[in-house]
């Protein structure tokens, strides 16, 4: 089946987009992401204030990321086998219970273990939400829907750290964690109200529709470049503290403003790139946007003062926001509908694994090398990787990106 015929079949099967479902999912995503980041910031502050040190905080960050990488082979298959409404009601309910227990737990080992359980739940819900969004809208509307979802998540990320600081300072750690528990229940409510559902679509032999990432070389290159870029960005998250505060001599207030500039740029990028026509959203176009996110990091290594980083971080954030929008459209377009749970779980595993690698590498590097040099090396690494990936995919011959029906029958989509 050609890509054109896939697009036409999707258009016929979904005459109009279900924007009510998109807004429900986006709103619940904003609340859920805010709750997750609120809890993570709160627990990091609590562990630091109680004198448990950097090892405990690192363990907390590892516990929040590792399950998403390790469980991808399981969670992707579950997402493609089990009714999406079942997953999005049962798993967040269990997460809410875990969060309630977490609110009354003080031992650092128990806290890290409970955070790992929360991350296990996230490993199940993330691929479901990723695969569900393309079922809600026509292909022509997917960039806009993806932009709305990403914007909602970025708003949650932007609000959570400041809210955590205020709440922990004024009320202690319990209230933020109870709010996080309520955010999971908000996701349950949204799942019950959303009309769009994904049900299992096995092959004629009763097994899952076959899909492997390595069967699509172009998509494999894209995921590899994204993983390398995420590793670099994660390392920058550690290095920039020393570069901006020590090397450039910025105050804590200026550091906070600079750090928020990237997220602010992502919000802008979500809006701008959501208006790009789907026919222009290709893997080479995505890699060009990745290059655009790496160039500001490389240039930042040469700035004389912290305020010079502000426009660079906004520009990098804009490209980062565009990357998120493009990824949703590309993965949805190159993956059969019945395999999208596995596709998004695989992507999440690559991203989370790369992010952990970047964090683990940054710590020892900061102790041994100048922060300005590390900025330049990390920016150059991301840039060279993206350029090499672009060179590879441009040599790829035109291929059929989807090898099976792109969308299940109408009666299997609506509730």
From TrEMBL:
It holds the Pfam family MFS_1. Keywords: Cell membrane, Membrane, Transmembrane, Transmembrane helix. SUPFAM superfamilies: MFS general substrate transporter (SSF103473). Residues 1-198, 217-415 form the Major facilitator superfamily (MFS) profile domain. This is MFS transporter. It comes from Paractinoplanes pyxinae. The chain crosses the membrane at residues 21-48, 54-74, 86-104, 110-133, 145-169, 175-194, 219-244, 250-273, 280-302, 308-331, 343-361, 373-393. It is found in: Cell membrane.
């Amino acid at each position: 089946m050609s890509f054109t015929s896939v697009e036409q079949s999707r258009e016929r099967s979904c005459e109009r987009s279900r924007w009510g479902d998109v807004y429900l999912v986006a709103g619940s995503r904003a609340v859920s992401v805010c709750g997750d980041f609120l809890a993570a910031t709160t627990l990091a502050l609590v562990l630091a204030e109680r004198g448990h040190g950097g090892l405990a905080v690192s363990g907390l960050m590892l516990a929040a990321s590792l399950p998403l990488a390790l469980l991808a082979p399981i969670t992707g298959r579950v997402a493609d086998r089990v009714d999406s409404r079942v997953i999005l009601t049962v798993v967040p309910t269990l997460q809410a219970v875990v969060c309630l227990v977490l609110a009354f737990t003080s031992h650092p080992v128990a806290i890290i273990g409970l955070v790992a359980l929360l991350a296990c739940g996230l490993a199940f819900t993330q691929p479901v939400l990723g695969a569900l969004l393309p079922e809600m809208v026509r292909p022509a509307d997917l960039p806009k829907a993806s932009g709305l979802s990403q914007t909602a998540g970025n708003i949650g990320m932007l609000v959570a750290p400041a809210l955590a600081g205020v709440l922990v300072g004024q009320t202690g750690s319990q209230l933020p964690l109870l709010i996080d528990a309520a955010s999971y229940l908000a996701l349950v409510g949204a799942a019950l109200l959303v009309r769009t559902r994904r049900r299992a679509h096995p092959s004629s032999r009763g097994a899952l529709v076959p899909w492997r990432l390595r069967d699509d070389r172009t998509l494999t290159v894209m995921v590899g470049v994204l993983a390398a870029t995420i590793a670099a960005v994660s390392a920058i998250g550690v290095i920039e503290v020393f570069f901006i505060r020590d090397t450039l001599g910025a105050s804590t207030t200026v550091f906070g403003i600079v750090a928020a500039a990237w997220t602010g740029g992502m919000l802008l990028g979500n809006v701008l790139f959501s208006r790009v026509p789907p026919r222009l959203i290709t893997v080479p176009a995505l890699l060009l946007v990745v290059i655009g996110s790496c160039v500001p990091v490389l240039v930042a290594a040469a700035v004389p003062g912290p305020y010079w980083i502000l426009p660079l971080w906004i520009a990098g954030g804009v490209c980062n926001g565009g990357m998120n929008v493009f990824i949703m459209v590309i993965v949805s377009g190159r993956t059969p509908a019945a395999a999208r749970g596995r596709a998004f779980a695989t992507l999440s595993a690559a991203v989370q694994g790369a992010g952990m690698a970047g964090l683990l590498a940054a710590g020892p590097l900061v102790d041994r090398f100048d922060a300005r040099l590390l900025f330049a090396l990390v920016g150059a690494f991301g840039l060279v990787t993206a350029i090499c990936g672009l060179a590879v995919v441009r040599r790829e011959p035109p291929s059929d990106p989807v090898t099976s029906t792109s969308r299940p029958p109408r009666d299997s989509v609506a509730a």
